[in-house]
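Q: What would this chain look like folded?
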Amino acid sequence: MEPMPQPTRARRILVVEDEPTIAESVAARLRAEGFAVTVACDGPAAVTAADTEQPDLMVLDVMLPGFDGLEVCRRVQARRPMPVLMLTARADETDLLIGLGVGADDYLTKPFSMRVLTARVHALLRRVDRSAEPAATVVVGQLRIDIDQRRVWRAERETQLTPLEFDLLVYLARRPRAVHPRERLLDQVWGWTDASGTRAVDSHIKALRRKLGADLIRTVHGVGYALEVR
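A: My prediction, written as structure tokens:
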């Protein structure tokens, strides 16, 4: 007699939001999509929940009591990297770039559509699923990427990357010297079908240059980026 198939575990999402109405609305919508949702309402509770619940993704508000969402993102990503969708009441570019710089993968400005939020959540999780596909090592010049272990070295010096930085680097490294338009990177790495997040691409490219060397990625003005072989 064949064994019964094991039920698929529902994806876990941690919603961190101190406004009860928003938190409840987001949690209800995500549960309706089939996710298992935990809610935290301040910075310390968010970090604790991330440790205990081991979520697959975090929806994170920037303004929180205790300590803010940027600090939550820093601490969570240092312990166990995961996709982060950041919510902000301010559309200031500096705030958005700081959020992306500390490890957020995507952001939404309040007020936002629940349909857009769920679409972004699904897109981030699809990206995670794609990155878990065939293990391999990619070597380009002095750059070595272990896709299975999600580790990166340049000139034998290992560098820690956020999940999205890693996925972006792998995509560029698999096609060295090829010029990749920002819109294609958004589609293939972020899973977005529109070009509204080009600032996110630019921010993550800046982070890769800062961590791995400014000469690694070439800007093709008006088009996009290419990884150089050095």
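The CA atoms of residues 116 and 131 lie 23 Å apart.
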